[in-house]
Design goal:
two-stranded antiparallel sheet; 0% helix; four-stranded mixed sheet; 75 residues; single chain; mainly beta
């Protein structure tokens, strides 16, 4: 990595994969995989990675003040 190279993206703490009608949630520090439910700590930075398994999806958390769109094959 050179001085002008951008830093690598942080490793995600949580990976969210959109499927038709539901979200798959994978916690990287655990073997747990859940559907449609996200548990995150309060007051701690968190790196999310979003992906789509099939079609376009939108992920929205009111406190983020925007929607994040996911496109299949483009995490």
């Amino acid at each position: 990595m050179g001085i002008s190279d951008p830093p690598p993206p942080p490793k995600p703490d949580v990976v969210l994969i959109g499927h038709q009608w539901w979200w798959e949630v994978r916690y990287m520090n655990s073997v747990a995989v859940v559907a449609n439910e996200i548990h995150i700590p309060v007051g701690k930075p968190l790196a999310l990675r979003l992906d789509a398994a099939d079609v376009l999806h939108e992920f929205w958390v009111p406190e983020l003040a925007r929607k994040i769109k996911t496109v299949p094959g483009h995490p």
